[in-house]
Automatic annotation (TrEMBL):
Presence of keyword Lipid metabolism: no
Keyword Oxidoreductase attributed: no
Swiss-Prot/TrEMBL keywords: Hydrolase, Magnesium
Requisite cofactors: Mg(2+)
Name by which UniProt lists this protein: NUDIX hydrolase
Stretches of the chain forming a coiled coil according to its record: none
Record-linked PANTHER family: GDP-MANNOSE MANNOSYL HYDROLASE
InterPro entries listed in its UniProt record: Acyl_CoA_acyltransferase, Nudix_hydrolase, NUDIX_hydrolase-like_dom_sf, NUDIX_hydrolase_CS, NUDIX_hydrolase_dom
Molecular function as annotated in GO: hydrolase activity
Domain of life the protein comes from: Bacteria
Domain named Nudix hydrolase: residues: 153-285
Source species: Aeromicrobium duanguangcaii
Family as reported in the entry's similarity comment: Belongs to the Nudix hydrolase family.
Amino acid sequence: MTEPADASTLLRDDDLVLEPTSGAEDLHGFAVVYGGERIGTVALQRSPGKAGRTLGSMRWNFSTGPGAMIASRALRIGVEYAFTQLKWTRIEARVPADDPLGLRAASIAGLRREGIARAPRGEVEQVLLARIVDDPPAFSRDGFVAILNAGLPRKRVIGQGILRDRDGRVLLCELTYKGEWDLPGGVVEVGESPATGLVRELQEELGITVTIDGLVTMNWLPPWSRWDDACLFVFDLGVVDADLVDQMVLQRSEIAAVHWCDLETVREKATLATTELLESLADAPLPSYREAPRQPE
């Protein structure tokens, strides 16, 4: 019989606590307590046979209240315990494909998508996610890119917008996960139009609601700096007062700051693809379809 985990061992993150429950052979169970209230459970299960020396799985159950960010903190505590105390080198989880909260929490906690476990007709497929002990930290640049690459479609679609102030400057976002600044926007979800995806991204990341004034161009981006290639839809978001930035609520995990930029600042700060796009747009209207030149690594 396995003893319950020692409550003093890496099971607390500020006001979030994993309290050990009764142990069983090869099983470590925890109650998740947040702000003094029990919100769910996390369990770590060793793999059978010799594999159990270094491999195991994780499952969880949360109430609907906490949200993905709180759930992900609990999962990170469980992963850390598995690696540091149980000495596992790999931890896996299978999450129903129709559980967006569970999938988001697992990804934020640093588990990468590795595939789909198919299911018979009428049953829900399972998404296989895993984390390895020497994966880069989830919130590092390499870790963030690896998690996104693992979960995104091979041919991805990005929606970005050109938002100008009354002096003709363009809004650029200073990102937390790369050094260059970029146009606001992001990856379009499966089943979502590029325009709808752009509006959603700006609501989530900048806290503003924008109106699409039309398509500027569709720009194909070649593979660059560990990112796969992408189809980039660039939309015109019109002209606004410069003080709009004072009303923005930034998603700090991805957006460090926003800046109004003239073309000289764009050349100094922006990604090479964004610089090339805005320089070309300054000379003449862009064709409806274009291909960005390959960029040096």
